[in-house]
Amino acid sequence: MLKSQSTPPKKLSTAQQALLMLHKIHARGTFLVVNVLLLLMVLYTSYRFPAKFVRVQGECDSNWLHAKAPENSTSICCTNESGGYASAPCYPGMDLMPVMGSLKGAWAIPLSVLVLNYGSMMLGPDASMPRVRVYVRRGLLYAVVMALRTVVLYMGFGQVEKGLTRAVMGRSDDSCWYASLRRGKRCPGGFDHSDHIVLLVSHYMAIPLFEWFALNVESAGPSMKRTVLRAWIIIIGGLAAYLLFFTASYFHTPTENLVGLLIAQAFVMLPLLLVTQDYFAVKWLRLRNFVLPANDDLKHN
Questions:
Q1: Virtual CA dihedral for 172, 177, 179, 180, nearest 10 degrees?
Q2: Cα distance between residue 194 and residue 200, in whole Å
Q3: Longest dimension (CA), the chain
Q4: CA angle at residue 268 from 262 to 274, to 5 degrees?
Q5: Per-residue DSSP letters for 124-163?
Q6: Name one GO cellular component term (predicted).
Q7: What does 53-120 look like in DSSP terms, one character per residue?
Q8: Tens of pLDDT along the chain (301 residues)?
Q9: What SS3 string covers 283-300?
Q10: Contact 114, 135 (CB under 8 A)
Q11: 3-state SS string over 225-245?
């Protein structure tokens, strides 16, 4: 049952402060390891698969050509039929990318961990108005992050990038033989940083990593809830890593991949890490607004 409290939360006990410090240290290590692995993955795919494929219209729903394919080359068709994923850039599960990249999927899937966490909290002994407010503020934090990725990093950076590319390299709308096969009847731009990498890292890795940290802080100890939510976070992150590997391998140049990764790390990963460390002096970015340690008297969350 929800405990109504009009007074502000009590100060953290010595034990809570010590545990919180330990969780902060673990968060730094986790964020560092994940980002180093992402960088190594992008560098590996850039070395192993330097080719870039572009989408064209053809016989099936998913048709692709090498960006530098000789004139009149046959497009590659990716289908769910037997052998339909045998040739690059086709890969099993590539139909997941449109789902996870859609507006609904890109918002609903990352927020699902918080929603499940909130629901289990409301059914447990630790439910209280201060804790509800913390969960709501955390949801708003995630919404701001996803809106930032959509409006600024995708729309805004995309327009700036397009303008700079045209200024430096000129227009290339008709410079490729397969322009007529493209949906917009135009050749791909000279440079197109991988927004799919920005999306996958920002929505499906950075936010679940922060929720992993919050789950650890708010759990009084091992529990079925924590185990299930951790498993779901790992599934989401694993799917994102799988899609990121093939996105970086086939659909962008090494430079485009690296720029996309650095954008996600600089504008999303790093700020969220700094929030876990209570780095910001701004009142509304303090860690206590988004995470509330478990009560000392609770053995299980």
A1: 150
A2: 10
A3: 73
A4: 110
A5: STT-BHHHHHHHHHHHHHHHHHHHIIIIIIIIIHHHHHHH
A6: endoplasmic reticulum membrane
A7: EEEE--SSSSEEEETTPPTTPPPEEP-SSTTTTSSTT--TTTTHHHHHHSHHHHHHHHHHHHHHHHHH
A8: 565 544 455 677 788 888 899 999 999 999 999 999 999 999 999 888 888 899 998 888 889 999 888 988 888 998 877 777 878 899 999 999 999 999 999 999 999 999 999 999 898 887 889 899 999 999 999 999 999 999 999 989 888 888 887 777 666 556 788 888 888 788 887 788 889 999 999 999 999 999 999 999 988 777 888 999 999 999 999 999 999 999 999 999 999 999 999 999 999 999 999 999 999 999 999 999 999 887 755 444 4
A9: HHHCHHHCCCCCCCCCCC
A10: yes
A11: HHHHHHHHHHHHHHHHHHHHH
Residue 190 token pair: 């000279």
- Please give the structure tokens belonging to residue 1: 């049952």
Q: Which residue has the tokens 């902060």?
A: 24
The amino acid occupying position 15 is A
